[in-house]
Amino acid sequence: MDTLHPPAPYRPDMPRPRVSAALQAALQRPLVTVLAPGGYGKTCALRGFWHDWHGSRAWITAKREAAGFLKALRRAIDALGDDGLLVVDAIDALDPQGADTLATLVDSLPRTARLVLAGRSAGSLPVSLWRSQGRLSALNAHHLALSPDEWRSAGLEGNADTWAGWWGARQATVHPDAAWDDELARWLDLAWLNDLSDAQIATLGRAALLPESRPEWLMALGIGAKPQADAAMLQVATLAGPLCNAGGGVRLAARFRPYLVAAWRAREPEAWRAALDNGSAALLARGEHAPAAMLALDAGDPSLCLSVIEAAGWRMLFDRNRDLLRTLLDATATETEHAPRALLDAAWKVEVSKLPHEADAQVSRLCEHPDAAIAAPARALAASISFQYDGFACAAGHADAALKALHEDLHPSFALAEYVAAGCALALGDLEHAQHALTHMQACADRDRLDWLQFEALHRRAALMLERGDLDTAMRWSIERRKRVRIAGLESAAALDPSVRLEATIHLRRLDTSSARRLLQAGTDAACTYGEYWSFTYGTLQTISSLIEGRSDEAAEGVTWLEGQLAERFLCLKWRAEAMLPRIWLRAREADRERLLEIAVRAEAEPWPECLYRDRRDLLCAAARLLAGEALDTGTLAERVNRLEQGGAADLATLGHRLMALQSGDSAALLRAVRQAAAHNDRLDWLWLAPRALGPLEALLGDTSLAADTLTRNFLRELVQRLLERRRDARPQEDAEASTDAPPPAGLTAKEWQILQLIGEQLTNEQIATRLHVSLATVKTHINHVYSKLGIRTRTEAVHRARTL
After folding, report:
1. Where is this region: Disordered (predicted)?
2. Closest CA to 330 of 341, 319, 314, 318
């Protein structure tokens, strides 16, 4: 029967038929000793043999107090019958009294019982006496060493002859997620670490200080020059190979690293402390700030964490180790008086969390810091905060002060300040200056491998090309940005958010709503990350998609939500200007002249600073007035367009040219606008301006100069066809509404009667065209028919006749 059991294995034991056969042969004698150094797998081999034994059996581990061991030994002997097997493991732990007790009780074993004594050494047991009496068989390390076949089947690397003693270490390396326990720690102490020299422990400890051992890192930690580092790598791979991650050579498993470092610290506390201090400084000097940060965090030393923040925090803020910086900031949260840490904490709120209001006061104080190394980067942060608040002139001033104080472009905050300066130049309409600043800023970010600043520069370059009206180049820059995000391994909804919105905008300009909606659907996770504020711009683009697709109810809901957001919260000028388009478009579709004019009047009354976004707002207000049937001040409009062209803002200037062409009815100017749109496949403006654009575009199809311009001719034909289809789709509803009015007088059609009634309301021809979603030429044709049928000669007479009828 089973009385006492062997300890459970750390992982399933590997079958050892060769060792089992040697044990079976050795048990021809009543006593067998299995003596070998730690790590040769004595317990593992005996455990399998014990389980396969067919008779009674018992197992005792000698690592217990003397009284307890004696009691267990007596119970085991009493339980053994004929052909019984007793295994006593770890006999090297017995004190002289325990050894004498075991030697005395050996004589009381049943004659057919077998006793196996295992350990590193025999200690005080009378092994020589038993051997001379012919009662003892002995197995040693030679019998236990893994054969080449067993080595290969275990999946171990290297040479079995040199690694044979570390089969026990392999048993200790259980699943990576297994918890650390005292038993494993004792095993490492007794079976391995106690047998290693101080130099070997120091080598393992240095390798365990960081997750991965590299020659240059070991050199920084004081291992010596390159030859010593290479030798140390080989030694770590040889000594601790089974304790490494699977397939990993010199990447120690996370569960063993703290224990190995603790062993080194216990033996050489001064060397351990020197490795931390000197190693972190050396790693920072080499530009290896990520391992320096991991070294400080693993040591749990706030002073080391602060030194890493001070030396490399700004680079980590903008490179792929950004999350590591957040961990450093959290680990030093109580160090509120440390100025470099306070500055980086504020920078995180401004640049990563997008919460500038939480850092505004702190940054203002740091800008007045007596140390220029603190004040100059703080100026760059102040510039970024002002820019996010639409204070472009103020932001430009802060950015210029930061650039002058930093002198050289080696500090990451210099690139940040230049990025803000480029954004200010773009917002203020100086696209040439913005282009120059972005080119230099991206070169600095590429040189210093500041991934996040690279991404920001690429996005702003794409936005700049969009303002220049070059949709294809803007798309290429945005795609390049997404490619770099993916290569850097930083792909996330928040990282891709700017590219998603810009590319969706370009797709909508080309009326490709399916591509735009796919991007917007993928990008909504970014809005969830940053909060409801960031969902506004997605709502704008979704509403424009609904308007393009003719989903009136969905578009009306979207506009209602946008207007609610505009009334309730602060939104940047760029987003407010962009949201005007769907609002104007919806009112134009509804022929709601009063609401169109109300949008224009209210928007123009808002005190916006002079900037590109104000120009966009004012142009959209002019479009709203045009769609409402009012005449535009072409002189003021032409002056604005000329200023935009001089600054390089060709996209807004093009919108101004389109509005002036529709206002003047100049077919040559309209043809130029169409040619420019065809060159970039830019269709959106013509769709929302359809009430005023359809008639002139239809008339333009007959222009003889299009015969040699295939691109423009095909573009114009497809555009007019789409606008006509949209008008036909709207007609059934219009006819249903007209049928509820009074029947037309004899001789007039329903449409002619409707137009005569609108004349009676003293609407202009342009306003009638807007109300009925038809071209101006169509309105004039219907009016001519009405005049002919009713004998009307003047507009005044038409008004009188409409009211009389």
Report:
1. 727-747
2. 341
Q: How far is CA 578 from CA 517, 556, 582, in A?
A: 17, 16, 8
Q: What is the mean pLDDT of residues 422-434?
A: 95
Distance in angstroms between the alpha carbons of the first and the last residue of the chain: 117
Q: Contact, 605 vs 621, CB < 8 A?
A: no
Average pLDDT over residues 766-783: 80
Contact (CB, 8 A) for 460 and 479: no
The pLDDT value recorded for residue 789 is: 80
Please give the sequence-ordered ranges of beta strands (E in DSSP) within 344-445, or none if there are none.
none
Q: What is the 3-state secondary structure (H, E, C) of 550-583?
A: CCHHHHHHHHHHHHHHHHHCCCCHHHHHHHHHHH
**Per the structure block, which two tokens stand in for 27?**
């048990």
The three-class DSSP label of residue 247 is coil
Architecture of domain 742-804: Orthogonal Bundle (1.10)
Q: Which two tokens stand for residue 100?
A: 């004498």
Amino acid in the structure at residue 133: Q
Distance CA 232, CA 392 (A): 56
pLDDT in tens, 715-724: 998 988 888 8
- What percentage of residues in the chain have a pLDDT greater than 70? 89
Long-range contacts from 561-566, C-beta under 8 angstroms, 24+ separation: 562/536, 565/536, 565/539
- Tokens 């072409």 appear where? 634
Cβ–Cβ < 8 Å for 234, 227: no
- What distance in Å separates the CA atoms of residue 152 and residue 627, rounded to the nearest whole number? 82
Edge-to-edge order in the sheet of strand 57-61? 57-61, 85-89, 114-119, 31-35, 136-139
Residue 453 token pair: 């600043």
The Cα–Cα gap between 209 and 192 comes to: 19
Task: At 473, list the tokens.
Answer: 């180049």
Instruction: Provide the pairing of β-strand 85-89 with 57-61.
Output: parallel
Cα 495 to Cα 477: distance, rounded to the nearest angstrom: 15
- Contacts made by residues 404-412, CB under 8 angstroms, sequence distance 24+: 405/372, 405/375, 405/376, 405/379, 406/376, 406/377, 406/380, 409/440, 409/444, 410/448, 411/314, 411/376, 411/377, 412/314, 412/315, 412/317, 412/318, 412/448, 412/450, 412/453
C-alpha 129/C-alpha 387 separation (Å) is 91
> Residues near 179 by Cβ (< 8 Å), separated by ≥ 6?
none
- Residue 470 in tokens: 């070059």
